[in-house]
Amino acid sequence: MIVFRGPDILARLLLSTAAGAILFAAASGSVSAATAVTAVRPAEASEPVRFDVFFPSRDPVGLQQLLRDQQTPGTADYQRWLTPEEFAARFGADPARLARAETALARSGFSVAGHFAQGLHVVGTAGTMQARLGTALDHVTAPNGKDTLVARGPVTLPLEVQATGAQVAAFLPVRRQVFSQRVGHAVPENRNSSTGGYWFSDLKQAYDAPSIESLSGVGRTIAILMASDVLDSDMEQYFGHENLAEPTLIHIPVNGGAEFSTSSGTSFEATLDVQQSGGMAPGATIRLYNIPTLGDNDIISGLEQILADNASDVVSMSFGECELFFTPAYNGGTNFELLILFYEELFQQGNAQGITFVASSGDNGALQCPSLTEPKFIEGASHPATSPEVTAVGGTNLVTTFSSGSENSAYVAENASGDPLVPNDPFGGTPLTGGIWGSGGGPSIFFGRPSFQTGINTGTNFRATPDLSLHMGGCPGDAVQPCGSNRSFDIEIFGGQAVGVIGTSASAPDFAGVVALLDQLTGTRHGNVNPLIYSVALAQGKKPAAAFRRTIPGFNGVFSSGQPVPVPGVVVPTIATYNMVIGNGTLDIRQFLGVPNLPAAGVPGTLSNP
């Protein structure tokens, strides 16, 4: 298995992977149904198809140096962000290679519909795919009900295209999960108990956000990447409940996007993402990039569009996939690890343009993967949260003050205690035992310890997740009942109804909103904010209260938060600086932003926190 460590990781991975690598195989073992699709019919030979071809960067070492300098005060490139055109000219694919590949593809019956920094957008027909790339295509139904195309077997470029260094990722199965669940104990009004349901204004008071009059995200833009549209009427109802207008919301379908449906999990997720990020930064503009499915093909297309538009300061991604799913063992011997490379190229380009990427760390604690040999959950972390260019956000249960008739939601305490699950399988196969609901965390199997984590004892030599946490809530419907005490939830307006929601899909867009506040405060983008997060954490040391709240007990099936928790046989120190349950801790937002003297968001319903 390849471990990405050095500054030239992208070039070395390309050299170590055979040109035209196979990027499709049926999953095996207990994850045989992990593709989560239903075959409908074979593609007609005349049907149009579209896929992307990637090429190595011209200067991967130089790119790594730039990314370091952009985060290092005093350097000439500190916070000097590139335009997409500047990035392509310095670090994109070699134009001569692109031209040779374009000519070779044309001889194979394909045409180039456009360019992006790392490669080509290619179009053709399903018949040409089968004749020249060696595989037939099938129409399948993705979990959100969207029709999509999946290859029956390997997708292999013609030899003369391979000779240009080209690589392809095309027509892969849909395996990403969204990280949210409805809960049945929601009520239409908030402030009904000390554990929610919480609206955004409750969270802003509890996490000490600045007053809306001080910072609201004005002038900044948040991108939501998800496979669904949302209802403007839901946004009007949600924000109207807290006496605010709906934030400026721009609907951007990518490759046709997916329609809103009250039966769709991705519609539920897209709605949550817009409401949580907009609630934290109601003055920001939100760009909803609506892709057809959560397949890698569509996610990559969405990221490419976000980078080309260069209109968003921060991108929120509330989905993920067990890292083991990229390995040969989980794909009948076929290696999917090259996909990690493609994502890294996109995330690094975004960071170079000043874009911050935020991802949910997962809802199944440190047990996010299925075993291949037994029907049980095993240890594993979630991508894209494991990427060093992405900020991984975990979650907790939140307890606030409560007095009937009062809207006061002052912070009292938090816990990150996992809830054991009844046997279930989110991947669609045999029910798995040993699962847990809780803050996703753990070490990556792909990425070595990034430089921003070297100053803190993370307990591993690999990239550790999460980086920080905010509220996610607990006690899903498939938890062993009754759950422990102090399980909380948020409120979402979905299809015109108030519903309870839990998951790191709530905490990640919340942090995206915090980044929008940071960008407004400083008047600039911040790119990869992980170096900032860890520098603030190092400065805090083991003090229990400052930017990060750390005295939070928790256990996610493998790791402890470092606070006293009732786990037999687990002996832990107190107030650790980092752990793989809540990362560096949850936020005191004003302290994190470095503005403790700014007015705080007070009791909901007041001028400081409508």
CATH topology of the largest domain: Rossmann fold
Computed Rg = 23 Å
Distance N to C terminus? 51 Å
Give the number of helices: 14
Oligomerization status of the protein chains: single chain
CATH class of the largest domain: Alpha Beta
What percent of residues adopt helix (DSSP H or I)?
Answer: 10-25%
Can you characterise this structure?
The chain is an alpha/beta fold and 610 residues long. It folds into 2 domains: 9-169, no CATH class; 178-593, Peptidase S8/S53 domain (Rossmann fold, 3-Layer(aba) Sandwich), CATH 3.40.50.200. 24% of the residues lie in helices and 22% in strands. It is built from 14 helices and 30 strands. Strands 10, 11, 12, 13, 15, 19, 20, 25 and 29 form a 9-stranded mixed sheet that branches. A 4-stranded antiparallel sheet has the order 3-4-2-7, with helices on both faces. β16 and β17 form a beta hairpin.
In short:
With 610 residues, this protein is α/β, with parallel strands linked by helices. The strands form nine sheets. Strands 10, 11, 12, 13, 15, 19, 20, 25 and 29 form a nine-stranded mixed beta sheet that branches. Strands 3-4-2-7 form a four-stranded antiparallel beta sheet, with helices on both faces. Strands 1-5-6 form a three-stranded antiparallel beta sheet.
Please render the helix and strand layout as text:
Blueprint: H1 9-16, E1 38-42, E2 48-54, H2 60-70, H3 84-91, H4 95-107, E3 111-116, E4 119-125, H5 126-133, E5 137-141, E6 147-151, H6 159-162, E7 167-169, E8 177-178, E9 181-183, H7 200-206, E10 221-226, H8 232-241, E11 249-253, H9 265-280, E12 285-290, H10 296-309, E13 314-317, E14 319-322, H11 338-352, E15 356-360, E16 369-370, E17 377-378, E18 382-383, E19 390-400, E20 411-417, E21 419-420, E22 436-437, E23 442-448, E24 462-465, E25 468-471, E26 490-494, E27 497-502, H12 504-522, H13 530-540, E28 548-549, E29 554-555, E30 586-587, H14 589-593
Parallel strand pairs: 10-12, 10-13, 11-12, 13-15, 15-19, 19-25, 20-29
Antiparallel strand pairs: 1-5, 2-4, 2-7, 3-4, 5-6, 8-14, 9-27, 14-18, 16-17, 19-20, 21-22, 23-24, 26-27, 28-30
